[in-house]
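User: I would dearly like some help making sense of a protein record. I have put the entry right below:
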Amino acid sequence: MESMEHTGRTDATEYTTIGAFRSANVHLTSCCNYRCGFCFSTKLDKRWLSANEWVPILEKLRHSGICKINYAGGEPFLYPEIVELCKVSKRMGFKVSIVSNASLIDEDVLSDLDGSLDWLGLSVDSVSEDTERTLGRGCNGGNHIENVVSVADMAHRHKISVKLNITVVRQSVEDDFTDLICRIDPQRVKVFQMLSLRNVNPDADALYGVTDEEFESFRKRHSEIVLSNGNSLIFEDNDVMEGSYLMLDPLRRVMTNSGRVLGYQSLDSISEDWSAVLDDQKYIQRDGLYFTR
């Protein structure tokens, strides 16, 4: 475990500032205890790297200007070394985030992450528990929404910033999220148009797809919501999401989604300028730099 003993913080002056990208989504595992029909990440490679194997990759990301790491899945709390990896990431100087379905989070988990986790992203797709179960969210008949509200309350008590991720699907396009957003009281809300990738989840459009017009209608109905910290909701349609995320799969490959097709590039084959494979302007357009303010 020698490489996990990373105690030095990387000063901001030590990394380069090529391009706009400052955040990366690291998919630690494709395993998940939910079965969301529109999800592409559960179809990624079932193998994963150890925390020790991620350390040099994190060092490369840090040197290239990345200062926020968002750990994703699948369900990242099924990754056995999630707490240890968050701690070493924090020691390296990253802002650390996890996006989760909240089903495996309790007070003990958040206590273990005290001081190591800056943001907790929680995913909700509908205001109806029945709809969430139909979509695949929930275990053993549990109430996904009520659990998210409860975990958000825990995170607030632990001084962890809460981000709410809403994926708009056909089954929820007419929902009004105003009251639920108020109950969760997040510091940030991102609203996504369901994105299908032709070579991964090609049936998702037919089952869950939302047209551009429907998504725009949803945006207009929610555009006046102001969070308690004064922030507005961030809306991301399919065009904005395409090419604007730096994503690594469980085997450290860079994932691309140009043309709505999932592709892979070797991390070693890419220079420190992420704009060679990604779109700086879309990244800025979707407020990807929010955590630096």
Summary: The two ends are 35 Å apart (CA to CA). The chain has ten helices and ten strands. Confidence is low (pLDDT under 50) at residues 7-18. The first strand starts at residue 23 and ends at 27.
